[in-house]
Amino acid sequence: MGLITGILTLPVAPLRGTIAVADQILRQAEEIYYDPAAIRSELEEVDRLRQEGSIDETTATAWEDELIERLMIGQERTGNG
What we know:
Elements: H1 3-9, H2 13-33, H3 36-52, H4 57-78
Helix pairs in contact: 3-4
């Protein structure tokens, strides 16, 4: 970066820092969202709630479908799919 470019872009430096922090937070949130262990835990929770009768079959199936889709997307993102 040249001197002139550095001087001209100095006012947006805080914005670049904020964007970098936001990107890092997004990456961490996606890691948690697509974590296979967390998804398996949620699948077990769905099964437990179904067994208790706290949720009906339609709700349980929809929830499981969403979790399986997340698992598949997570595997594609890491190249394990």
